[in-house]
TrEMBL record:
InterPro entries: BACK, BTB/POZ_dom, PHR, PHR_sf, SKP1/BTB/POZ_sf. One of its GO terms (cellular component) is cytosol. It holds the Pfam family BACK. This is BTBD3 protein. Residues 121-191 form the BTB domain. Keywords: Cytoplasm. GO terms for biological process: cerebral cortex development; dendrite morphogenesis. It is found in: Cytoplasm.
Length: 523
């Protein structure tokens, strides 16, 4: 069939191949009767193939993706396309349109239509634990192309020809997320299902999806979920994620230990945290967190949360808590009265605090090293003058950005240039107008040009490549030192810090001079 326009140009050809069953049958019979007969006239049969030769054109062939690069279907088909996309979200929906293929210009889009669709499905999965299963359709070829596990399952030497496969250890939402990646080349992750999706990606060896899950977890990592993610990262053997978790737990230890997620970790992870030398936390906080975990563990083991059972579930992990390193007040008012210690243990620890000859203890008695804070100093010199720098309730502010994740613990501030003085400082850290941390405290200035640290209650996590605003409002001796020759970029170890002026600054502080000479951080 030739198709031409009105002028006879742009000719196209459709080629049809026709083979009739009777013709093939008769041809076979006649060939067997005649044997090796070479008679061309008797041996001729009606042709079984008809072909029209395509006329050559000067135009170069293009793939559909070249012609329609990520182009949306025409407006006339928009409703139909949206309808089909909506059907993909639901299970067991086939496409009724006879020419749905024409709505999608690329193979990627046509393949995506098959996602979660019963049309041409040759396998079904019953996913989820008993009582929470979901039946999902699949297409063996597509799945085998996307996963070596599916390839072995359907086309390997030990392949089983099953129409229905049960997968009780994967959540339906996570399995759907993996199928969406395999069919549509799209990664759709959510905070409440990303761990389950990572498990599915690991199980079926879909490495790029697994990497995307890890990246998602790293970017959403915080003190609230760091302990749980630490436990999972060890399970999934993801060392990079494990290291990121430790960075957060070390720097924001008290927030991490007080989080609800801490009580959900397994015993092995609990031991690894209690052994940690670099935990930046008071030991009384570590002790209280361990007791909270023990109470929840009793519930998991269906035990009454008595003192005896708490001690039982803690086991030898109790002695990883460095009780002898607590402040005496914390021990006397906390651990000693908790009931978790035996009478002999309590007496021995009291003697450890007070006696010259200290008894032997099962508890670790060496203080944790914690983290050493780093200081980023942004001025090359400082000065004072008779009419500067004054404080009248106005704000000194500066913006900064880092190239690696750090945790801001506080600011270094200048003090009085007229002898010793006490200052009241309200420090604040914001991102796009949202307050991330603030504190009101006092510090004593000895009259020197040194900087004096002022701390936040908890270190504040700072993400890379985003500007944050550091602010302080000082109340005290009006005349103080101030910085000069400010730098727009400072290298502190492996961290690069950039500075720029802040519109919140109403007291004269900027990049070139002013207050807030130092950022104190953990990295």
């Amino acid at each position: 069939i030739l198709m031409v326009d009105e002028k006879g140009k742009n000719m196209k050809c459709l080629t049809f191949f026709l083979m009739l069953p009777e013709t093939v049958k008769n041809r076979s019979k006649k060939s067997s009767k005649k044997g090796n007969s070479s008679s061309s006239s008797n041996g001729k049969l009606p042709p079984v193939c008809y072909e029209i030769i395509t006329l050559k054109t000067k135009k170069k062939k293009k793939m559909a993706a070249d012609i329609f690069p990520r182009k949306k279907p025409a407006n006339t088909n928009t409703t139909a396309v949206q309808q089909y996309h909506q059907q993909n979200l639901n299970n067991n929906n086939t496409i009724p349109a006879p020419n749905w293929q024409g709505l999608y210009p690329t193979i990627r889009e046509r393949n995506a239509v098959m996602f979660n669709n019963d049309l041409m499905a040759d396998v079904h999965f019953v996913v989820g634990p008993p009582g929470g299963t979901q039946r999902l359709p699949g297409h063996k070829y597509v799945l085998a192309v996307g996963s070596s596990v599916f390839h072995a399952m359907f086309y390997g030497e030990l392949a089983e020809d099953k129409d229905e496969i049960r997968i009780p250890d994967v959540e339906p939402a996570a399995f759907l997320a993996m199928l969406k990646y395999i069919y549509c080349d799209e990664i759709d992750l959510a905070a409440d299902t990303v761990l389950a999706t990572l498990y599915a990606a690991k199980k079926y060896i879909v490495p790029h999806l697994a990497r995307a899950c890890v990246n998602f977890l790293e970017t959403s990592l915080s003190a609230k979920n760091a302990c749980v993610l630490l436990s999972q990262s060890c399970l999934f053997e993801e060392p990079d994620l494990t290291q990121r978790c430790w960075e957060v737990i070390d720097a924001q230890a008290e927030l991490a230990l007080k989080s609800e997620g801490f009580c959900d970790i397994d015993f092995q992870t609990l031991e690894s945290i209690l052994r940690r030398e670099t935990l930046n936390a008071k030991e009384i906080v570590v002790f209280e967190a361990a007791l909270n975990w023990a109470e929840v563990e009793c519930q998991r083991q269906e035990l009454t949360a008595t003192i005896e059972n708490k001690r039982k579930v803690l086991g030898k992990a109790l002695y990883l808590i460095r009780i002898p390193t607590m402040a005496l007040d914390d021990f006397a008012n906390g651990a000693a009265q908790s009931g978790i210690l035996t009478l002999n243990e309590t007496n021995d620890i009291f003697l450890w605090y007070t006696a010259a000859k200290k008894p032997e203890l099962q508890f670790v008695s060496k203080p944790r090293k914690g983290l050493v804070p780093q200081r980023c100093h942004r001025f090359q010199s400082c000065a004072y003058r008779s009419n500067q720098w004054r404080y009248r309730g106005r704000c000194d502010s500066i913006q900064f950005a880092v190239d690696k994740r750090v945790f801001i613990a506080g600011f270094g501030l200048y003090g009085s240039s007229c002898g010793s003085a006490e200052y009241s400082a309200k420090i604040e850290l914001k991102r796009q107008g949202v307050i991330l941390g603030q504190n009101l405290s006092k510090y004593f200035s000895d009259g020197s040009s040194n900087t004096f640290p002022v701390w936040f209650e908890y270190p504040v996590q700072i993400e890379p490549d985003t500007f944050y605003t550091a602010s302080v409002i000082l109340d005290g001796n009006e005349l103080s030192y101030f910085g000069q020759e400010g730098m727009t970029e400072v290298q502190c170890g492996k961290v690069t810090v950039q500075f720029q002026c802040s519109s919140d600054s109403t007291n004269g502080t900027g990049v070139q001079g002013g207050q807030i000479p130092e950022l104190i951080f953990y990295a």
